[in-house]
Amino acid sequence: MAEIPKEEYLKKCTSACAGCSSSLTLRYVLKAAGHDTVLVVPACCTSVIQGIYPNTAMNVPVYNVAFAAAAACASGMSEAFRSLGRKTNVIVYAGDGGTLDIGIQSMSGAFERGTDFLYICYDNEAYGNTGMQRSGATPLGARTTTTPTGKTVEKKDIDAIAAAHHLSYMATACSAYPQDIYKKVAKALTFRGPTFIHILAPCPPGWRYPAEKTIEMGKLAVKSGMWVLYERENNKLTISAPSKAAMRKPIPLEEYLGPQGRFKGIDPKSIEILKQRLADNLKHLAAEEEASA
Amino acid sequence: MKEIATGNKAIAKAVKQALPDVVAAYPITPQTEIVETIADFVTSGQMKSRYIPVESEHSAMAACIGASITGVRTFTATSAHGLLYMHEMTNWAAGARLPIVMANVNRSLGPGWNIWAEHTDAMQERDTGWLQVYVSTVQEAYDTTLMAFRIAEHNDVLLPVMVNLDGFVLSHIMQPLDTVEPGNFIPPIHLPHAIDVKNPAGYGGLTGPDQHFKFRWDIERSIRDSEKVIAATEADFAKRFGRKYGPVEEYRCEDADVILIALGTLGKEAEVAIDILRKEGIKAGSMRLRWFRPFPKLDLTGKDVVVIDRDYSFGYGGIVAHEIMAKCHCDVFSVIAGLGGQEVTYDDIAEFVRKRRIGTEFWFGVNAHV
Ligand SMILES: Cc1ncc(C[n+]2csc(CCOP(=O)(O)OP(=O)(O)O)c2C)c(N)n1
Ligand code: SF4
Description:
B: 370 residues; 10 helices; globular; binds iron/sulfur cluster
């Protein structure tokens, strides 16, 4: 990890849960972005993680804004910086709820009008801040406080939705691969216009696994093919190294689902659907990569 | 420069001269002409602002908030449902102490679907911490918009300002307009808490019970302080450009026994009704409230007070009437008239005064004293 700077922008005094991978992720996001950055944060765990006024756990300005408003707020900020002649990075750091559900309208609007910003969705597959309710990102079969017997519908494909906006750069990442996050964030920030990174961020209380297994959990997601790391640069898709390796011989999905309390008692039919979706997705991505090579 | 313009055009012209850095807006009848005119100014290079055509009013206010916090001048415009859709963000703007200026073209709320004038939209924003002013002519719409930027951005205020104008009756009506060269009338904006990457801080984050009330009190204190700023701004405007405004526009009030109170265009039309009544020997005068927040101080002791509300709080009454009763410790004849563009003539207004029954509420058209 030679190239990652030592400079810390996320201080150790955060109020995140033990083993929180989304705050770990944020640490690398900020290292890649540097000090000339403003973070726009809608209501989510991150708005709590940063601490209580007058304290702050972050070393860049953080603008907290209402749940549905992050991307629109970033549009205003980005245009204002432009009118001031400044190059400051504007980064939205939003949860899956603030992205796939309530914030999707403002995100889509900002993408469409070409706002110069990076939108990062850290995906813990539920509403962490309000106590683990289902979100549009919760997978089929996962138990949350509002789907106590398991979610009956599938995870929304936000990447396909984002891709439909013809972004010049978009990527997926996972908290267990910090170097990959660092590289992708740094790259995204070299583009003008909207860019998008979707980062899987396992969450111990939400997924119901022991806090010390947070890195392992992210790795299992990638190794099973349930989560695929890739980047799409001007329509050219490249599958990232860890997923390339995993795709040659994915581990059985059960090895990923098994250690998570949220999938306890999942019915076999749901597992079959998840496996089918996983296989389709891998096939689809491999074909797209080949076609765009 | 003298010309003829609609209320909407007058607002757009004032915005152009105030040189905002960022305008973000979403169209809604009857405000549309404002955003179209500004978009045209920007596209044709007459205005240097960044114009953000957002996808909703929630986003329009969010974009203004994002821009404003960097320390630049911002403007938006809306009406009725657009304003209500913004409601979460209007609170955010005031709470974050951002001097955003917004024109709100007063329109009724559905259902039934009605696009005509009513003040209930703005009244539902009463408790957000925004300053609110209601204008009555095209000229006043223009002048007040110029003043709004200076008032909002004054460091003793730093609160958003809403300029209200009646849908169609003022937004679309053509009247003479005398534009000015504002010069240094609006000083450069200086937002003390503008985002600064060299001095990182958290904005709008968690604030515990031991701190939050201090921020609320700070808003209240600034609203109170805004009275002085408004007075000074209006005085300077009068000195430079010759047109005088105040929190209340009084007409023939000196020796009046009856005072008629209304907002916006109805308040202006009331002046004609006063002349009719005076001819009949009824000593009437009118007070048109321009500023609704901060609420002006009115001396109504010993007067019969008639209040026309173009708004209503269901289960409670006319909103302005109740504010006056509470603030001025008097009883009033409360008239509910003009809702959803309902036609109210000078003669109707004069008749309200003739038939006044202090202590009752009268719904015009329904003809019911309640
Ligand atoms: C308009 C509105 N509705 C509801 C909420 C309550 N709320 C705050 S955070 C949150 C869930 C956030 O979930 P997500 O975006 O997935 O982020 P996470 O908390 O998991 O980090 C909800 C429902 C709110 N702040 N605003
Ligand atoms: S709930 Fe999950 S995402 Fe939120 S702080 Fe805790 S571990 Fe992190």
